[in-house]
Design brief:
Elements (H helix, E strand, L loop, with lengths): L1 E2 L5 E2 L10 E4 L4 H12 L7 E6 L7 H11 L13 E5 L6 H18 L4 E5 L7 E5 L2 E5 L6 H12 L6 H11 L5
Antiparallel strand pairs: 1-2, 3-8, 4-5, 4-6, 6-7, 7-8
């Protein structure tokens, strides 16, 4: 994968990904909140995640303040006119890996709600698995021809749009056992 001239993450060949499944994110806020947790499962867990905002994403001061809260522990607002690439390390949240995943799913929610353009990959996105968000659509991308995993993830959400994905149920169970999320 590489960045193109428009600051998008694309295949190393520069081609758009023909194996992407596009899905219109729900418009209902609570369903969108749940959906963001489901699509977080698409990007494999890794030592780090890379979030890329492309050049078509305008970030006003209010939005910058909101996105900055998800991307850094520093209360100062990030300069999105110069910073479009963000490395989020696994476990860099105070509450470890689960906290990082929750923070990223909240960020996905916000980016879908605002209909921004963003790309999320991890250190384990070996088969080109990437989540691309554009204008309220989520694109589950992979280099593989077999899109069964993506279709199953979306079918699970459609069966129970207000339910939690497996990874979040595991976080909740650990929390109930006394661990912090």
């Amino acid at each position: 994968m590489k960045l193109d001239d428009w600051n998008r993450i694309v295949n190393a060949t520069g081609d758009s990904n023909p194996n992407a499944i596009a899905y219109r994110a729900p418009r209902d806020a609570l369903q969108l909140f749940c959906f963001s947790r489901h699509v977080m499962e698409w990007v494999p867990k890794g030592d780090w995640w890379l979030l890329q905002l492309d050049n078509s994403t305008p970030v006003d001061p209010n939005t910058a303040s909101l996105l900055s809260a998800f991307l850094t522990h520093d209360p100062r607002r990030l300069d999105f006119s110069r910073n479009r690439t963000f490395l989020i390390e696994s476990g860099d949240a105070e509450d470890g890996d689960a906290g990082t995943e929750l923070r990223l799913s909240n960020l996905i929610f916000t980016l879908l709600l605002l209909e921004h353009h963003a790309y999320l990959v991890s250190s384990n996105s070996l088969d080109g698995q990437m989540l691309s968000l554009q204008d309220g659509l989520a694109y589950l991308q992979t280099r593989e021809q077999n899109q069964l995993k993506a279709r199953m993830l979306l079918a699970d959400f459609e069966r129970n749009p207000m339910g939690n994905p497996k990874w979040l149920n595991e976080v909740v169970a650990r929390y109930q056992d006394g661990d912090q999320p």
